[in-house]
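Lab meeting, item 3. Inverse folding demo.
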């Protein structure tokens, strides 16, 4: 019997939005779901029990960063990521492929592998498809990703095709290298915003029969409407019976638009990164707590959201924390933002079950008034 099962519960009658249940060795993930990013086996400033209290089911960690420190061997020796970071729920690890894009100035790549010059100490770090799988097997995440090439969205078509073909070849090598059967290895569809390139990528990956598929190469500089139109033609290429994961997205409005187009899983640093800088996502739109107008505001940040930072402190106090550089401020707003994202997804799952997802979108986008 497989360690993984994706159960499709309901699809909205007017859109591609769907509610599912993904069974993993470390628990069930109700989809659509948002994963907070814990790059170095830590969602910055937050305890695992805090993440659970606001509804987090699954978190993400990063292969490249953990391979550099503390090292995959140490994590394995400590019992794997679940034991190491004291998180007993599902974990997904990225392969390091996004760092090929984000750390492009520190990389050299050919068809065999990527060679990074470490951003920490300048040492060389070689990452092949086989090594990416081995590291992720040592880390012990439930869901692991194929090594891929994520090119900028505006590269010439010839370079985009090279990236698509390299991603497909690397995916086959990752599949052949996998030894553990208790980890779901996802293939990653690339191709930028070009429909033919996305078709080429999907046609190369689907015969490899991965248990799930990710959509990479979006939210890398293209306009939101281009991302949405790309999802319009990409998600229908992917198997209905398997989870679909949109990597690195994003804004609350982007989540709604992608879910309407049939996406199941998301991750993004935005809620915690913005939270550390005093930017809160609320039911009425974004709030910059550094603004002077909040200095004497006695109101809670967002009474519709259930976290200490949402309801227990005034906006005046939260602003004071940031202006005084008190560490409690980033902690409270990071937790609030994750709570907001989890509530948004819970409410959206219910709207899908009620066949009211279009109404949900209209109401929320109007309330946010394009601030997202």
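The presenter then showed the designed sequence:
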């Amino acid at each position: 019997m497989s360690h993984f099962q994706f159960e499709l519960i309901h699809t909205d009658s007017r859109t591609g939005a769907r509610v599912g249940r993904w069974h993993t060795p470390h628990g069930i993930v109700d989809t659509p779901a948002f994963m907070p990013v814990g790059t170095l086996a830590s969602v910055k400033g937050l305890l695992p029990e805090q993440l659970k209290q606001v509804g987090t089911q699954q978190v993400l960690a990063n292969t490249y960063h953990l391979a550099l420190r503390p090292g995959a061997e140490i994590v394995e020796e400590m019992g794997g990521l679940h034991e190491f970071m004291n998180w007993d729920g599902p974990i997904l690890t990225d392969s390091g492929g996004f760092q090929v894009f984000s750390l492009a100035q520190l990389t050299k790549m050919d068809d065999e592998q990527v060679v990074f010059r470490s951003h920490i100490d300048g040492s060389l770090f070689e990452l092949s498809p086989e090594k990416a799988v081995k590291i992720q097997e040592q880390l012990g995440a439930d869901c692991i990703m194929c090594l891929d090439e994520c090119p900028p969205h505006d590269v010439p078509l010839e370079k985009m095709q090279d990236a698509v073909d390299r991603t497909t070849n690397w995916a086959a090598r990752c599949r052949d290298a996998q030894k553990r059967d208790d980890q779901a290895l996802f293939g990653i569809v690339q191709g930028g915003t070009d429909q033919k390139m996305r078709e080429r990528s999907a046609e190369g990956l689907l015969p490899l029969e991965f248990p799930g598929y990710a959509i990479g190469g979006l939210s890398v500089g293209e306009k939101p409407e281009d991302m949405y139109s790309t999802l319009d033609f990409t998600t229908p290429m992917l198997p209905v019976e398997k989870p679909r994961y949109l990597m690195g997205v994003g804004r609350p409005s982007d989540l709604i638009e992608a879910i309407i187009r049939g996406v199941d899983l998301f991750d993004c640093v935005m809620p915690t990164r913005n939270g550390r800088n005093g930017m809160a996502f609320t039911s009425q739109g974004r709030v910059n707590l550094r603004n002077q107008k909040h200095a004497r505001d006695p109101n809670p940040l967002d009474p519709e959201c259930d976290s200490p930072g949402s309801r227990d402190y005034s906006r005046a106090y939260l602003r004071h924390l940031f202006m005084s550089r008190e560490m409690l401020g980033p902690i409270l707003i990071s937790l609030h933002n994750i709570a907001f994202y989890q509530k948004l997804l819970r409410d959206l799952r219910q709207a899908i079950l009620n066949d009211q997802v279009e109404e949900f979108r209209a109401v929320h986008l109007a309330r946010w008034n394009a601030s997202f």
